[in-house]
Write a structure and sequence with these properties.
- The structure is a single chain.
- The chain is globular and about 70 Å long.
- By secondary structure, it is an alpha/beta fold.
- The chain has 19 helices and six strands.
- Strand 2 and strand 3 form a beta hairpin.
- Strands 1, 2, 3, 4, 5 and 6 form a six-stranded mixed sheet that branches.
Length: 522
């Protein structure tokens, strides 16, 4: 019955066509209370600032087939719902309910009037995440950087070129500079522009804290389920698993508040023996079949259990606590331990990301489930900067771990300044490297704090490998979309300030006349 209801909800998903935001105006939205929506609402501001055409075109390319099959849901509805989910840091089901109840959210996702129906079934979020991969979201971020019209990436040149009271020239933005370079068609190396701020952090998954004893118990219970599945279609005697005895022995140690190393080691040894017996029973049962009768998900569990047993047996025999590609969750075997060395979290379990910050826009340069040394990623991030904009950055701000001798030499050969502490003893004559002043690296640390505290990057709840990557990339996208509102307000304030200066300098209006003109100006 539940499956039928879920299928019915999927069939009721919104099939309305995508309309450009230029065709949807605020006064045309019909609310059930016969009132117009407030233009100062955050969802209205964000809806009018997001480059929907760029997002929709990127999303549509992942659909694959435009001519056969049922029509897809409105791309703006899908992307808008994903933005709402991460912006409010709520679950998939709660997101659907919030959209159903909130008319401002419905305006944000492109509805022309208020509707009491749900936009789509919550399970479709999985498919949406699979379509918006890491590469697609990075492409959207690049378009955002060009659309919001950032000021000149080389701030020093813009200060010298712009005189006081003169209008600001926005022709040297990141997007326009890239276009000019591509159109030129010459082979000369373009001038370095802008600055690149980079850092790495861990994104923990929403899993229980893994211990060897708990992992072996989970694997043993899953192996018992596989034995029951295989035995259901056979008439042979069911192999003994000793599941009740194994469970009691596990709880006898696991429920103790204080456990000695000897008790833990003995409990691990017992669970290893039970798990080994179950794996052997599974292989004997499989011999009765012409082909493996297990489903894809069940067969994956079998492979994970066998790998987990080999790893735990190796660590038990060698009396060590680490092994290559260690499995910390049988349900999410792609998750790896990430050693951070922090006081409150020495080890986190999830993925590690490398982020580059350019003029307030964050780019997810790399996402890996294996721990990596940040120093080996500097060259790759700088090359990605050039691939995006057509030129190298003028300077790089990085943490100490990035500033190896090899990286310093590579940056020097590329004529890129490194804003970091120089090697060796401090010299009174100065150094080639320009040290970073306190607070200059705060923007990227602030981005990490905002993403983890406000948008849930410190607890990724997706379970699959690809959906977890999309979850993280979507949070980075939300960070950049929020930046759009701030840029739009800043641009409005700057234009207003220039207008007031012009009237005071040339027209010599009084304060009262300026107030009247402000009320009548567009």
């Amino acid at each position: 019955m539940q499956g039928y209801m879920a299928k019915a909800l999927k069939s009721r998903a919104s099939k309305q066509y995508y309309l450009s935001p230029r065709q949807l105006i605020l006064t045309g939205f019909e609310s059930p209370f016969s009132n117009q929506l407030l233009s100062t609402n955050r969802w209205v501001k964000l809806a009018n600032s997001i480059p929907w055409d760029a997002l929709v075109s990127t999303y549509n390319r992942q659909l694959g087939n435009k001519f056969t099959g049922a029509g897809s849901i409105n791309p703006r509805v899908a992307i808008g719902a994903l933005i709402i989910k991460h912006l409010c840091d709520i679950s998939d089901r709660e997101t659907i309910l919030q959209i159903q109840e909130n008319m401002y959210m419905q305006y944000f996702i492109g509805y022309s009037s208020f509707s009491n129906e749900v936009p789509f079934d919550a399970s479709l979020f999985v498919d949406i995440r699979k379509r918006l991969t890491l590469e697609q979201i990075n492409e959207i971020n690049e378009k955002i950087l060009g659309i919001i019209g950032k000021a000149d990436m080389d701030k020093d040149e813009s200060k010298n070129d712009n005189k006081e009271g003169a209008p600001v020239d926005n022709s040297n933005t990141a997007e326009n500079v890239t276009d000019n370079i591509n159109d030129a068609g010459n082979d000369t190396e373009p001038a370095h522009k802008g600055s690149l701020l980079m850092d790495a952090t861990a994104c923990p998954q929403d899993i229980a804290y893994p211990t060897d004893l708990n992992l072996l118990n989970d694997a043993r219970e899953k192996s018992e389920e596989l034995i029951d599945e295989l035995q259901a279609n056979l008439t042979t005697a069911k192999p003994r698993t000793y599941r009740e005895i194994a469970r009691k022995k596990y709880l006898k140690t696991a429920q103790k508040k204080k456990k000695t190393k000897k008790e833990i080691r003995n409990a691990i040894s017992q669970q290893l023996q039970y798990l080994k017996r179950n794996i052997s029973s599974i292989h004997k049962l499989l011999e009765h079949y012409d082909k493996i009768p297990l489903q894809k998900k069940q067969y994956k569990y079998l492979l994970v259990i066998q790998t987990l047993y080999d790893q735990q047996k190796y660590m038990y025999d060698k009396s060590v606590h680490s092994v290559e590609d260690r499995i910390v969750s049988i349900h999410q075997p792609h998750v790896r331990p990430i050693v951070r060395g922090k006081t409150n979290a020495n080890v986190e379990f999830g993925s590690k990301i490398q982020v580059g910050l350019v003029n307030g826009i964050a780019f997810l340069d790399e996402l890996s489930w294996d721990a990596f040394n940040e120093g080996t990623r500097l060259e790759k991030s700088v090359e990605k900067y050039k691939a995006r904009f057509g030129f190298y950055p003028m300077e790089v701000l990085a943490d100490k771990i990035y500033c190896t001798r090899e990286n310093r030499k590579w940056l020097k050969d590329k004529n890129i300044k490194l804003r970091a502490k120089p090697l060796g003893r401090p010299s009174s004559k100065g150094a080639l490297s320009i040290p970073v002043r306190p607070g200059e690296r705060n923007p990227i640390e602030g981005k990490f704090g905002q993403a983890k505290t406000a948008y849930g990057m410190n607890r990724i709840k997706a379970r699959l490998n690809e959906t977890s990557q999309s979850w993280i990339a979507s949070i980075v996208l939300v960070l950049n979309l929020i930046n759009i509102i701030g840029e739009a307000l800043l641009s409005l304030i700057c234009k207003l300030t220039d207008w007031i200066k012009y009237n005071i300098s040339y027209r010599k209006f009084s304060k009262n006349q300026i107030c009247v003109d402000l009320n009548s100006s567009p």
